[in-house]
Write a structure and sequence with these properties.
single chain; alpha/beta; Rossmann fold; eight-stranded mixed β-sheet; 9 helices; 8 strands
Length: 236
């Protein structure tokens, strides 16, 4: 397995659709894709099932899967190349450094698909829908741009709904049992590796779509959120 990873890491260096910790990228994604189509991110993309799946559905939009683990990115990047999806790329970096790679209004939407829910209250700031991350997204996401969360974690789903309410975000759509529907949007039919595993053991998929206010509340609200999480954990 270790040898396989090393081979993949070397191959990644030759993939034109993979950028590993690139310098001077803000404002230059149009140059990479050779068009000015909307740019949509899949954060913590893993093997990039959503970036690739959305790329198939929307050829007139550009998709970037973002993750730190090159071994996983290799899978999605390879598939995108094999299918000739020139509107799909991958960025290897840490999510907490994401604002270093995009300029203001350069991203139109964000998908967060099956991230680590970071269930311990002490790790709440690592949740990708925590206000700490929302403030990063606000630096490059267009005004009113949608943030999509798809997860099998009821805890992350409820946490995100709490953040949406406390921080004045606009909730546009939500579903606490995505696959319990006769007609499902094509976007939500895409399945990731982790979705098929059902790690949370809920046999249920949750979905939220929301947008950010023009200005997010600051540290006082963060402390209020922290205390609310502690109180809830204590009640349990």
């Amino acid at each position: 397995m270790a040898q396989k990873k090393l081979v993949r890491f070397e191959e990644l260096k030759t993939f034109e659709n993979v950028l590993q910790f690139p310098a001077n990228m803000p404002g230059k994604w149009d140059e990479h894709f050779k068009n000015n189509h909307p740019v949509i991110l899949e954060l913590a993309c893993g093997k990039g099932e959503y970036a690739v799946g959305l790329g198939r559905l929307y050829p007139s939009k550009n998709f970037i899967g973002v993750d730190l683990k090159g071994n996983r990115i290799w899978v999605g990047a390879k598939k995108a190349m094999q299918e000739g999806l020139r509107n799909v790329a991958f960025l290897r970096t840490q999510i907490d450094q994401i604002s270093e790679y995009f300029s203001k209004d350069e991203v139109s939407e964000i998908w967060i698909t099956f991230p680590d829910p970071q269930l311990r209250v002490s790790k709440a700031k690592k949740r990708l829908t925590h206000p700490k991350f929302l403030r990063l997204y606000q630096q490059f996401l267009v005004a009113g741009g949608s943030i999509h969360l798809k997860t099998d974690s009821p805890d992350l789903y409820q946490f995100t709904r709490q953040v949406i309410e406390m921080y004045g975000c606009a909730l546009h759509d939500y579903d606490d049992n995505v696959h319990d529907k006769d007609r499902l949007p094509d976007e939500l039919k895409i399945k990731t590796h982790y979705e098929s595993l059902d790690i949370a053991g809920t046999n249920r998929i949750y979905y939220l779509r929301f947008s950010l206010p023009s200005s997010l509340p600051g540290k006082e609200k963060d402390e209020e959120l922290k205390q609310a999480l502690k109180a809830h954990a204590g009640a349990d």
